[in-house]
Amino acid sequence: MYHNRIIDKWLEEWASRKSRKPLLLRGARQVGKSSAVRHLGEKFENFVEINLEKNSSYISIFKENLDVRRIVSQLAVIEEKTIEPGKTLLFIDEIQMSAEAIMSLRFFKEDLPDLHVIAAGSLLEFALEEIPTFGVGRIHSMFMFPMTFDEFLMANGEERLITARNAAQASNPLPSSLYEKIISLFRTYILVGGMPEAVSKWVDTHDYIACQEIQDDIVVSYEDDFSKYKKKADPVLLRQTLHSVATQITEKFVYSKVSGDYKASEVKKALEMLSMAGLIIPITHSDANGIPLESDADNSYRKMLMLDTGLALRILNMTLGNISELTTHILTSNVTDLVNKGPMAEMVAGLEILHNKAPNLRYELYYWQRMSKSSNSEVDYLISHNQTVLPIEVKAGIQGGMKSLWLFMHEKKLHSAIRCSLENYGEFDYIDKEADNEVRHVSICPLFALSQLEASEVK
To answer: Dihedral of the CA atoms 66, 69, 72, 76 (nearest 10)?
Structure first.
């Protein structure tokens, strides 16, 4: 069964354009790219899917030349299907298997502009790196990730709960019954994660163990892929680095903590490979003196996230052994402890911030820390909002426990911030006595409502 995805509306909008470019759908393996394209294909009179990994004989069609009219004609004969511009969606899956197939995409825009063409593939970024100018200005990219919390709610038939949550605000928080329900579902989401197969298993069975078996299979499949990383990194090092990322989530990543006798330069390369594959997501330090945040970024100070909380927990189990105490903590601890103790709340906050962005651009995550040996001040996430820097602190504590946020707002002369927690909606002001009693306003955005962050009115 297909569970609706947020990207569906973006794909439909692309398909409805009178003038469109071929679409390249990018993202890690098993996040649902092929399923989303097939779902879109149901809206077409004809849908033709070819998979260059499952059937390598197709690759030779692209090798002869890049005449897309010839290519389409031959594919139609082999598939015994009509490929007609305006009526057919042509889907080229696992396109990374053929550099020629990738390069052919640009000519669909020039020679068959009315034909709907989508391509996708795992480890696609490695292939694109080798042909960096393959389709500048002629190909449109979208980026896909594991399912967000909203998508998880939709898969579980909780559309009404989403509507109620979206109507809530600081002056009108969620009723206690709905608040408790959404907190319970959020706990489950942390454990199940957003990999579509795991979510489907949860919807069907409500069995955590069954979901964990699927997560384990996904992790193994990722590790099996390491030998395909263009021979740029040792598969053993890639595995050790991935597992080290899981143990260092939300901490400044320390190369020396990776098991084995590896040089820092080797670990750095492994991190780059894992990031290109979409398995990890870097959070880069920024001095945040203004917009854009990347202008003040320092790549030597980075934290790392896994692409999915459920997979991160499975890797922790493989790395550290039995983590039942951690999973019990996620399911049963009070909301303050769930946020303040352990990295999962901070991790899911970063993922929700990233995954709820529009899919047609590549986004980066940033954080801030004070570069002083005597200081441990740190703000978890920074985003651009209304042409200014908006700090986001993932914390369940009261105002007095937010010294890093107050320090950051004071130094950067900012008047608005977000406290992201599992509290209900709310807001409060802080009077900065060291800045002539300037008012610093903090809005409370629940972790389960980060999909609404971009649309929210931040004072």
So the answer is: -140
Report the distance separating Cα 362 and Cα 348, nearest Å.
19
Residue 393 CB-half CA count within 13 A: 25
Low-confidence ranges of the chain (pLDDT < 70): 132-136, 342, 396-401, 455-459
Give the residue from 413, 412, 437, 417 showing the smallest Cα distance to 427.
Answer: 417
What is the C-alpha separation between 355 and 117, in angstroms, rounded?
A: 24
Distance CA 273, CA 177 (A): 45
- 209: its two tokens: 């163990």
Give me the half-sphere count of Cα atoms (radius 13 Å) on the Cβ side of residue 321. Answer: 0
Can you give the pLDDT at residue 136? 67
Partnered with residue 392 across adjacent β-strands are 381, 418
Residue 134's pLDDT is 66
* pTM across the whole model: 0.94
List, for residues 101-135, the tens digit of each pLDDT value. Answer: 999 999 999 999 999 999 999 899 999 888 866 66
pLDDT for position 122: 86
Q: Please give the radius of gyration of the chain, using alpha carbons only, rounded to the nearest integer.
A: 23
Q: Are 59 and 96 within 8 A, CB to CB? A: no
Half-sphere exposure of 240 (CA within 13 A, CB side): 18
What is the spatial order of strands in the sheet that 388-394 belongs to? 297-306, 280-286, 365-369, 378-385, 388-394, 416-421, 438-446, 426-432
Residues 6+ apart with CB under 8 A from 153: 159, 161, 162, 185
Q: Is 238 left (phi over 0), alpha (psi -120 to 50) or beta?
A: alpha
Report the C-alpha gap between 108 and 310 in whole angstroms. Answer: 39
Q: What is the dihedral of CA 100, 105, 110, 114, to 10 degrees?
A: 140
Residue 336's pLDDT is 84
What pLDDT does residue 459 have?
Answer: 56
N-term to C-term CA, the chain? 42
**Can you tell me the distance from the alpha carbon of 197 to that of 194, in angstroms, rounded to the nearest whole number?**
8
Other beta carbons within 10 Å of 427: 16
pLDDT digits (tens, 9 = 90+) for 383-416: 998 889 999 999 865 545 688 999 999 999 999 9
Q: Return the pLDDT at 135.
A: 64
